[in-house]
Design goal:
Blueprint lengths: L1 H18 L2 E5 L8 H8 L3 E6 L18 E4 L2 E4 L4 E4 L2 H8 L3 E5 L5 H13 L3 E5 L10 H13 L2 E4 L2 H9 L7 E3 L21 E5 L8 H13 L5 E5 L5 H8 L5 E5 L4 H8 L2 E5 L7 H7 L4 E4 L20 E3 L4 H14 L2 H18 L4 H14 L1
Parallel strand pairs: 1-2, 1-6, 2-3, 6-7, 7-8, 8-9, 10-11, 10-13, 11-12, 13-14, 14-15
Antiparallel strand pairs: 4-5
Helix pairs in contact: 2-13, 3-4, 7-11, 10-12
C-alpha cells in the first residue's frame, strides 16, 4: 500500500507540473543577478532557460545553471557583420513546443528576437521583451525608431528597465499601453545595514567587470591624487574580466589599490565593503550601482546617463543617496567629488548610507523576479 500511495502522489505531482504553463526565458547568458528571476518564474511556471554558459568566465561572469525545467545551452553566431547575431534553438523550440509565453531580452541586433516575435504572432504565443529602451540614444535616429516601434508592435509587452526607458520609447511613438516598467534590480543575499557604517571608513569600493568602458584607470588616478594630498583613502577592486590582467600588471604595485579578483560570494563582498565609505563606478555603470546600495555605500557615478551601460545610475540622487561628478571633467572632476565626500562629517555620510540602503529596499519590494513573473502571468492569462 505505501508504494501505491507514493506512486499515486508522484503521478499527481507530475500531472500538476504538466498543468502549469510553460515559459521560455531567453537570455544571452545567465548572470548571477538573473538567478533570482528564474527562481521567481519557477514558482508559477515550468521554466525553460535558453542561454549560453560556456566560456562566460573570461568576461568576468560566473557560470550559472539555475534550477529550472530545462536549461538549453545555446550558441550565439555572428551574421554578415559583427553587429548582427542569432541565438540557436530559440525559433525551432518555440514553433515545435508552443510555450504559453516567451520572455526574451530586447536586443534588436539579434535575428532570433525578430524570428521569435514573428513566430509568436503567427502561432499565438505571447512574446514579452525586456530591455533598456532607447535612453542611450537621443535622438534615436530613423533606423532605431523603426526597429523599436516594430518590435513593440509585434510584442505582447515591452518590459522597461526604468521609467527613463519607458519615456524613451514613448518619445518615438510606442503606445503607452504596450509598455510596462519593472525597475531593474538585483537581490543581494548578504547586505550591510547602514547602522554598521561609521561614515569615516577610508575605502572606496569598485565592483563590476573589468571591461572596456569601466574606466577604472580614472578612479585609480583620482584615489592616487587624494592619497598624495595626505588623505587616508584606499581603493578596493572587486571584479574580473578581459582587462583584469592588464590592469593588475600596470597598477599592481600601488599600495593604495587592493585587488580581490572575481568574487561572487555576497558574504565576502559585504565583508570587503565594510572597509569602504562609498562605492564608485567611474565609467559606464549598470547594476553595480544597486549592489552598492545594498551594501549601504552611496555610489559615485558620472552625470551623463546616455553614456552609462544601463539606466540604473539614474537611481542615484546627488547629495542624498550618492554623488555625481561631471563626465567631461576626467580624473580631476572625479577627484574633486571624492574630496568633497571625504570632507563631509560622519553623520552626513551615515545619512547618505541610510538613503542608499533605503533605495535598495525600495527596488526589491517586490523583487525584479516577482515583478516579471506577475507581468508574464498576466500575459498568459489574457
Amino acid at each position: 500500500m505505501p508504494n501505491r500511495i507514493t506512486s499515486a502522489a508522484g503521478r499527481a505531482a507530475r500531472a500538476h507540473e504538466r498543468a502549469r504553463p510553460t515559459v521560455f526565458y531567453v537570455q544571452p547568458l545567465i548572470a548571477r543577478y538573473r538567478v533570482e528571476v528564474v527562481e521567481s518564474l519557477n514558482r508559477l511556471f515550468n521554466v525553460k532557460v535558453f542561454a549560453r554558459s560556456e566560456g562566460v568566465e573570461a568576461s568576468g561572469f560566473s557560470r550559472e545553471t539555475p534550477h529550472c525545467e530545462e536549461f538549453v545551452e545555446t550558441r550565439i553566431e555572428r551574421l554578415l557583420s559583427r553587429r548582427i547575431r542569432i541565438q540557436s534553438h530559440v525559433l525551432a523550440r518555440i514553433v515545435r513546443e508552443r510555450p504559453d509565453a516567451v520572455l526574451i531580452f530586447a536586443d534588436v541586433r539579434y535575428v532570433s528576437l525578430w524570428l521569435a516575435l514573428v513566430a509568436g504572432r503567427a502561432i499565438g504565443v505571447p512574446v514579452l521583451i525586456h530591455g533598456q529602451g532607447l535612453y542611450r540614444h537621443r535622438p534615436a535616429g530613423l533606423l532605431r525608431t523603426v526597429c523599436y516601434r516594430l518590435a513593440v508592435a509585434l510584442a505582447t509587452r515591452y518590459v522597461c528597465y526604468t521609467d527613463a526607458s519607458r519615456a524613451s520609447l514613448e518619445r518615438i511613438g510606442c503606445p503607452h499601453g504596450k509598455l510596462v516598467v519593472a525597475n531593474n534590480s538585483l537581490t543581494v543575499s548578504q547586505t550591510v545595514d547602514p547602522s554598521a557604517k561609521s561614515g569615516a571608513e577610508d575605502g572606496v569600493l569598485f565592483i563590476g567587470r573589468l571591461r572596456e568602458g569601466a574606466q577604472l584607470e580614472r578612479l585609480i588616478d583620482a584615489v592616487g591624487a587624494l592619497r598624495a594630498e595626505g588623505r587616508r583613502i584606499t581603493l578596493h577592486v572587486v571584479g574580473g574580466g578581459e582587462h583584469g590582467e592588464r590592469l593588475r600588471r600596470e597598477y599592481g604595485a600601488r599600495d593604495d589599490v587592493v585587488w580581490y579578483g572575481a568574487v561572487f560570494d555576497d558574504a565576502q563582498i559585504a565583508a570587503i565593503s565594510r572597509r569602504c565609505r562609498v562605492g564608485c563606478y567611474p565609467g559606464a555603470a549598470g547594476l553595480s550601482i544597486v549592489h552598492m546600495f545594498a551594501l549601504s555605500l552611496p555610489p559615485v557615478v558620472h552625470d551623463r546617463l546616455p553614456l552609462h551601460m544601463g539606466p540604473e545610475p539614474g537611481y542615484v540622487e546627488h547629495g542624498r543617496s550618492g554623488f555625481v561628478f561631471a563626465s567631461d571633467g576626467g580624473t580631476d572632476g572625479l577627484a574633486a567629488v571624492l574630496r568633497q565626500v571625504w570632507a563631509l562629517p560622519p553623520d552626513a555620510m551615515r545619512a547618505a548610507a541610510a538613503a542608499a540602503h533605503a533605495t535598495y529596499r525600495e527596488l526589491n519590494s517586490p523583487t525584479l523576479g516577482n515583478r516579471l513573473a506577475t507581468i508574464v502571468d498576466a500575459a498568459v492569462r489574457a
